[in-house]
Write a structure and sequence with these properties.
It contains 7 helices and 14 strands. The protein has 293 residues and is α/β, with parallel strands linked by helices. The chain has 2 domains: 143 residues, Leucine-rich repeat, LRR (right-handed beta-alpha superhelix), CATH 3.80.10; 82 residues, Ribonuclease Inhibitor (Leucine-rich repeat, LRR (right-handed beta-alpha superhelix)), CATH 3.80.10.10. The chain has a 10-stranded mixed beta sheet with strand order 2-4-5-6-8-10-11-12-13-14, with no helix packed on it. The protein has a two-stranded parallel sheet with strand order 1-3. Strands 7-9 form a two-stranded parallel ribbon. Strand 11, helix 5 and strand 12 form a beta-alpha-beta unit. The C terminus is likely disordered. This is Protein phosphatase 1 regulatory subunit 42.
Length: 293
């Protein structure tokens, strides 16, 4: 077991060089960046003396729980991708956090983000889930991020619908490649609520094989500059927008024409009234009854 502690920091050659004559307590109080990636760390100890910590690199380790970070109220960047984390918790005090990297863990439900109102980037790609399991995002956490989140990466997580993401109206970069998204109408509806969206990657989803997939998204999201790694040129966008408008206008005219024709036909039939009634009764012989032989 390797635990991240003050002693481990003191023994680190990288940090020892930066002390520059300071005592360890003095150095730890001035520490803003802590680099302990790829060190086989599986637990986080008491680092509360590092009160000015703003960036923490702990990726490519063996950490199973996020813990003992409540002291880091100045933390803005947290890199914990490629660990063994199963649950997002103990982040409530990190209210200045702007970038959170948790890709490549074992997280099945994204929750515990309700207090992170300044979070701008959330990276959750490539979770190592059980067979048949998909990444779920808690609606309350999403709602708390609605005014701040600009970047969301949920690549390769068996996701088949994203309707709950509609509230993220400030999104600029969205990556959901290699999932199971297949409903074109749902995607168009969600993306219509993201007026700031600049870049999007949906490559590797079944929906990409739908007819006019790219054209439909370009005309739906006018701010989009890059789709699935390919730049969108202004001339292409304008052509597609004009084509869509022309198609809708033609469809509207045809519908109006159909409605008008049906109305005239109904009016004509109403004016004609019921047709003549042909009697099939057998004439009587009452007029011959007074004839005498």
């Amino acid at each position: 077991m390797v635990r991240l502690t003050i002693d481990l920091i003191a023994k680190s050659r990288n940090h020892f060089k930066k002390k520059r004559g300071l005592s360890l307590p003095q150095y730890l109080k001035t520490l803003t960046h802590l680099h302990f990636f790829s060190k086989s760390i599986d637990d986080i100890g008491d680092l509360s003396v590092c009160r000015n910590l703003t960036v923490l690199y702990l990726y490519d380790n063996q950490i199973t729980h996020i813990c003992n970070l409540g002291f880091a109220s100045n933390l803005t960047h947290l890199y914990m991708q490629n660990n063994n984390i199963t649950q997002i918790d103990n982040l409530s005090n990190l209210q200045k956090l702007s970038k959170l990297y948790l890709g490549g863990n074992r997280i099945a439900v994204v929750e515990g983000l309700e207090t992170l109102c300044e979070l701008q980037e959330l990276h959750l790609e490539n979770q190592r889930l059980a067979p048949g399991e998909k990444l779920l995002l808690d609606p309350m956490s999403l709602l708390s991020l609605a005014e701040s989140l600009c970047v969301l990466n949920i690549n390769n997580n068996n996701i088949d619908e994203i309707r709950d993401l509609t509230v993220l109206k400030e999104l600029q970069h969205f990556s959901a490649a290699d999932n199971r998204l297949d409903n074109m109408e749902e995607l168009e509806d969600v993306f219509s609520h993201w007026p700031q969206l600049l870049q999007m990657d949906l490559g590797g989803n079944p929906v990409c094989k739908k007819a006019k997939y790219r054209d439909r998204l370009i005309t739906e999201v006018h701010s989009l500059e890059v789709l699935d790694g390919r730049e969108i040129h202004d001339l292409t966008r304008q052509f597609l927008i004009n084509w869509k408008a022309s198609k809708e206008t033609k469809k509207k005219k045809n519908n109006n024409k159909h409605v008008m024709t049906g109305s005239l036909t109904n009016d004509f039939n109403a004016r004609q009234g019921p047709g003549p009634v042909t009697s099939t009764a057998t004439p009587t012989c009452s007029g011959l009854s007074g004839h005498k032989n």
